[in-house]
Amino acid sequence: MGHLPTPRSEGKDQLVLDSAAQAIPVLIGLAHAWREEPKAVDSLLADIADRDDQARAEAYLDGLGSAEHVRDQLADQLLARAGGAQFWLDRANDRHAAHQARRIAEEARRLADRLDRHANLLTLQVEKAERERAARDAAEMAHLRGVIKAAGLSADCKHCSCWGHHANGLPCHLGCGTPGHAMTETLQPAHAG
């Protein structure tokens, strides 16, 4: 059993950190706690679920609600009844303890390497998407310039040179306020000086 979450690929670019191995001892502890005090554990579980529903309903409050905090406190109480979620490293000063620490360190390095590769892949995808978006925007602007020029109109915005936005009816970036205002001023036939 690993001591850290196991990275697993789900689909082409999806990475999942699987914590099942860490959850199993907690669930076993919870089962023992339930066997000893079933009513108390049942009550805590029901309260946690109720507070979680309330926390979801309070999501629009942007952290101002109290249900999430209460839910987490109740979950901490239940976790304490189940024996906690900590894993104690071997306390002996022997080779086994050193081997255990090295094994966990190696798990951490593998996890860090996998996450670094995933972050690099995401960065490349984001940069590619940004380049493609910039190319589409440039092509759209070139097309708009061509259409306006073919119509014999001037496409220069007196405020901010954002004529493409004005052609779509959006206001000037410098705040002239009226949608298309700068374009209506400058959408004059090119020969009408």
The counted number of beta strands is 2
Q: Number of helix segments?
A: 6
Which outline best applies? flat
- The largest beta-sheet arranges its strands as 1-2
Estimated structural class = mainly alpha
Q: Largest sheet, if any?
A: 2 strands, antiparallel
Low-confidence stretches: 173-193
How far is the N terminus from the C terminus? 80 Å
| Helix content class | 55-70%
Q: Order of helices and strands, N to C?
A: EEHHHHHH
Mean pLDDT comes to 80
How big a fraction of the residues is strand? Answer: under 5%
CA radius of gyration is 30 Å
Give a brief description.
This protein has 193 residues and is mainly alpha-helical. 62% of the residues lie in helices and 4% in strands. A two-stranded antiparallel ribbon has the order 1-2.
Keywords:
mainly alpha, single chain, two-stranded antiparallel sheet, 193 residues
